[in-house]
Amino acid sequence: MQLKTIEETIAAAKDTSVTIKAPGTVANMVCGFDVLGMALNDPGDIMTVKLIEEPVVMIHNVDNYGLPTHPQKNVAGVALLDMIERMEHRVGFEVTIEKKIMPGSGIGSSAASSAGAVVAANHLLNNIFSNEDLVQMAMLGEKLASGVKHADNIAPCIYGGVTLIRSIHPLDIISIPSPPLYVTLVHPQIEVRTEDARQILRKQILLKDAIRQWGNIAALVAALMKNDYSLISRSLEDILIEPIRSILIPAFAEVKARCLEAGALGGGISGSGPSIFMLSSDEKTAREVETTMKEVYTYTGIEFYTYVTTVNRQGVTLIA
Ligand code: HSE
Question: Is the peptide bond between 43 and the residue preceding it cis, with omega within 30 degrees of 0?
Fold first, then answer.
């Protein structure tokens, strides 16, 4: 069979559309600030991307979050504009976004929008761009949202599973195999902007603290690869970021202590917060952890949502 030229591919795809689900993600995974992340089966954003002839990006939001529709101010928009820049034969995209991951939740809302948009658009272009190209484009969305490029939400959103980002200059992403894991999240209905949650961090750390932290990161990666739940549990410790950021999250210490008592392997702040996540090795424990989270948050009087989910292994998936 003769391969189609890019022009033929684009002509055939014009006015066609795809609908995708872009998974929420937990960045950092406690000890791996900016270098570890995992994708979740729930929640996830739904997006439809249509290929159009004019090389522009049009954005429609079908939710109540009031996010910007100007492409240069929208995280999906900047990622798609970068894709158009990289194309020899330029086309444009019309995007409809139904966000199910609340912005400012710490569950990778901005990453789902930018990664979902570029994966869907690439599909319409017969996958001319590599996953690494897509991560580069989607990171522009993270820069817009938080002021800094980081890939620990984008990479798991695109690749699925647990990913390690060894470097972003040059990009070096490693998929880490992991045993079955249940993830329980509580999302208190307050917004923590990633940009603010980064501003408050210390710019310098002590060598002895760095040693402890990289011991935990290395052990967590080894534990995931060896299916060693006990080592996963011991490695879920963050002495650098959590002591500072947890101040922004109501009842953090109590939620964490009570969830560990309920049998969770461990957990902490999801991304930059305010959501808190806990890992469990079985569903029954994950549900008990959810009950515990509900008890603590009901007492605080703050509105909240909870999720019990598992690790998403596919990343962004085509649903239509
Ligand atoms: N690694 C980033 C941070 C993730 O913690 O600031 C933001 O979701």
Answer: yes
